[in-house]
């Protein structure tokens, strides 16, 4: 495989190509192929961007049909038939069945753009600058979003410009099982000299992907919603990684029965890995004036098309959800077994997650890296997350076949045993 | 045309659909078609994103070929054959022939992302927080980029959070023809109590697109480069709108013979309107540590593919450049005539631009709006720019046929006369 | 009493004159007299500025002696005999006996100025922007200091400019007695994605005056010092209110046996109520370049003179400390009785404090206000603190006579009973 | 002279003691005496803090009278007889005769505190965060004030925290005599994409003291006032150094006939060098809520007393003003002669100033330092200002005797000739 020009010309900022130093060429559902023809099962799935698998034939066909004629590809924020079809589909298949009433903003096709728009919306609506976010939260790295992202790797790379306007609170479980971390948040909200500027909004992931597959309890989320209501604070759920079915529901917050004021989606939203994002907001929050937020690619018609196709093929009824939940249980069970085995070796390990967003916490990044390196040798692409990379995580396509899922799990188990023996 | 759902569900932030309230469906080169089958000549071209026209068949074919097999579509920042091909092509056809030696970062597929990465790179490299930018500059609206964007519409919509780390200097011509605005910048640089924090970098567009087709003189750009060198400041050229041939050269700064330390490209970079951007940097500036800047869609293989195809088809020799320059002269001449006619009506008007990035300044947004509204009725999509929208601008596809170009110009002339009579 | 011009001309920002709407004219030790000749016992003492009482004759005599000749009064940062005498006295009577080795900065004569200098010093020394501060902390209201001050009254009055560079942690006891709040701080320090930017310094009051007479445990302070050492973070003790003997030691941190890297003093430092402050720093931290921090009144020779006199008269041996401790016990005992009585009335109340910095927490500002209003009627000036003004606090002069102390306590007790009956 | 302890214990931040490395002990009017009994004429006068001279006997007597009884010295923001007397005197002798109607805030006794309060007031009143300030302006170094101070020495010593909320415009004359710098400001105000956030206020010195005795033209100031009125921007005159008679009028803005919305005074306000400041504001701007800005020393009764005495003795009629103007002409004439002589030596030099705030610009700090060092040897304390310290400035007491003034000028002339021969 020719990699010289890649090593020479691409910035040192590259990361995944260090863990998986091969040139990938082809991919189908949960299988990746490198240039030498070697196949890998993919438990990373574009970091949660390929919930419907690589080259999903149903979604891809919609793209090919669209491209077959000279349909408009790039449409700024024009009205296009593709956008209209997406909005209709979103309303019909997703919002209405869930009793949700949202307006939709297309802020530019990346998650960080959606977060920038969402927190600006909250600030403008409430006339307050502060946004509460949580330990180990990840919401993007552009400067506005970065104020809500906990990772020092990014926070220390701003060239000395401190972020402005975010305050971190402890996420559910951060202080141990005995402590409800919202007690602290609520106490600070009620404290006139506690140093917490009353926030315009709270931004939260129901399951923290980059932060280490940390799972917020459903009661905790419900209580958080209640605190927000009581203090006139907007609840923003960042569903960029946990949404689009990843946790076993279209929106990850459905499990908790909360109704956010603002929702951000991206990653798997386009269905095929195309850049795409939207912000959903309660209609009364839509106080934007024309053009107050913009971006060149906010009308990428190919993504509207594939996104609508994904909804149409997977979200007409609850069968897809149920299948994801079933696979989630398979992974959970197997991860628990693996974690138990690791613990038996004297390395404390535990399983956690929701739906098909699951991880094994092995306590150290070094151990996790050994496992994932061995897995890659054995034909499995799997990554870590968490502050130290200590969680081996499974973000496999939701559409993975049972055969591939089981084979992937087998490889992982083997790799764990090889790595830790 | 069904527009109810669009009006009901899409956020009030929408803009272009207010000026052009139709549903567009198809598009080919410089022609747009709405749902009722009406055709429009497109002098907007995705705000400079469609330099090669809508549905460019050569570029599109590369996309279709790529999609014909299960080639990887979304690759995070994996090494992929598509990325490698893009880098090889970029080096061979663009960088080497121009004597440029740059490393390449893919920071996420939007221009604002590229700017965020570029200014962070400059700050980290120089250990200073300030970035000098220019009046009427536009570099994106995420909070980091917004510090360098002059438009109050965006700056006042941050929900009360001031931007940090940008200082505005007067752009070339801002203080009239008699004043070299760099005198002020240079004086401040040398003044220990002038209030200017020594900047890490200067970010500049050689022609300001959103700002009103303001054209920096070649001597001014050369002097700016000299000032940067002398004061150890990095020169960042934001070529997101002016690059990819728009001004008659691949990079807009080639006209001035300057060599920036950092370059941002996006918009037309993918060739087909797909979200895509890169940051070019002198190799010694590439001090990123792995993963210090990230984003989900930084390895969008479809865009690598179409971007490489665009380079291969249009940039093997200088024939495309020469054709753009020729068309630029056609537009310039006609715009001068139109401007002269307007001036004769007692409304002072003037033409300006470089290559096919040209405008007629009619002095007020109200008048410009009348003209573009009439043009739309007459079958021409054309937009305004400038602080008050006072410049009617032509950003037609570089690939526009002579017939369409002339017809578009005819429509514009007719519309001007109708609007101002 | 003529108050019209005061009401008409003085800004609405005035506060104490609302609680005590009389014109004060004379004052001696712990007694204030208003224009009508009415006397009040003073349990406020300039909010801790008059530890040695009003018009302390020994200190005042030094001032009069100094003024008797044409000694220099205002000396910028010249070397003056008055400054030299102060430094010698400080070293001889305070630093050496306590085994402390500090350099001294005179940053301007107010506490907030000292805090601005201290946190800037820490940031410059460590090359990090963040300063950790604590819930209910008060460190001044100029924009730099305000980043470390918890009170919303000030934080919300900045005209929309968010403070930059401070992060709040829970103070000792904030989460109840069962929780050591430093667990949270330590966890965040060790968490690479917890959102805590590694701080340059921690700023803390050992007893929070404005925050509600919250007392940090000695073990907690010791542990905090250890955490700072372990993580290479500077420990800044803000001893502006708690210092100069208020807690029964010259420096309030002596009780805990910690040695701060930086100390701020002001308020009672001049001994007579003259504006004065200094910053003490470990010598190796003194990396200021000449003139990097300035202010017109940093060489106020009258304050050097009275400050030296105060040290000479009260700090030659430990008799003053012991007397303060004794009086502190008297107040503590009486406050406990009063708190117990209040609790018996069904209003939960408790006593807390260290030395002569003591308060009764009555749970609500409304109740506390009733008590202090009644006390004022009865001839006692006493104020509240805490986020809701819920703590009736005693900051009487340390030099108060036993008679006045007991009379003041009697008045308070009577007032409590009148107010709550 | 014993200086060891001063060198050992005082922070390296000290400055004036480097230029004048002696221990000063006594001082009277315009004469300073060091510990060895050597006398110096004082052309620095506490950097403009001692307009009425050292140990002014009339003002000092008021202090001694006040101290003779147990009058209250430190009064927080209580109503005191001393404060009332100051307000009455200020109204009667200063405000009324000038037709000014202001409310008064005592924000803490330093200039930077007054500036912090003033800009916060403006921001709160207008609901905008930006404050426009000018090149070479100096308004203090606490973080809020520093946003409006141009000097890099301070701006680069914040430990990496950028200031927020200030924008610099070119001061009068900054771009040469041919350019009215307000053209640029006005253009930016009217430019919707020029990058200037519409300011809440403009803060300006009519003569820049630290910035190099730069004198704003009276027409320029008048035009600035007009621009502020037209754009609903508050005009804040920082009269901390130029006020209290320094320019030949009590307020320096009287010359131009402008009426600021907000005024800051400090330095010579107390008359005797005691820390003191106030903020004057149009009554309708006094929207502070009780206690929104505070500080321990905002009721320093000794300063109220001396400040009232200074007004009573010097501002009952215009004789003092006229005397200052006369002396100003003496200095101006002599400075012109000296500047002419310097220019004859091939070093371009020029005189400038207003009233007794005057300087000779010798073009380089090195030359200026030679002159002031030689002057000190010859018995004259005189300092430099300007971005490079290139201006030898005279800020002698306004009360200086004609003999001392002439002797000081003679020494300066001799020193210039010695230094440059």
TrEMBL record, chains A, B, C, D:
Signal peptide coordinates: none
This protein's pathway: Amine and polyamine biosynthesis; ectoine biosynthesis; L-ectoine from L-aspartate 4-semialdehyde: step 1/3
Keyword Transferase: yes
Listed EC numbers: 2.6.1.76
Alphabetical keyword list: Aminotransferase, Pyridoxal phosphate, Transferase
InterPro entries (UniProt xref): Aminotrans_3 (IPR005814), Aminotrans_3_PPA_site (IPR049704), Dat (IPR004637), Ectoine_EctB (IPR012773), PyrdxlP-dep_Trfase (IPR015424), PyrdxlP-dep_Trfase_major (IPR015421), PyrdxlP-dep_Trfase_small (IPR015422)
EC main group: transferase
Cofactor(s) required for function per UniProt: pyridoxal 5'-phosphate
Top-rank lineage group of the source organism: Bacteria
Pfam families given in the database record: Aminotran_3
GO molecular function (one): diaminobutyrate-2-oxoglutarate transaminase activity
Gene3D superfamilies linked: Aspartate Aminotransferase, domain 1, Type I PLP-dependent aspartate aminotransferase-like (Major domain)
Coiled coil location: none
PANTHER family: DIAMINOBUTYRATE--2-OXOGLUTARATE AMINOTRANSFERASE (PTHR43552), DIAMINOBUTYRATE--2-OXOGLUTARATE TRANSAMINASE (PTHR43552:SF2)
Entry's family note: Belongs to the class-III pyridoxal-phosphate-dependent aminotransferase family.
Entry protein name: Diaminobutyrate--2-oxoglutarate transaminase
Organism from which the protein derives: Halomonas flagellata
Gene it is expressed from: ectB
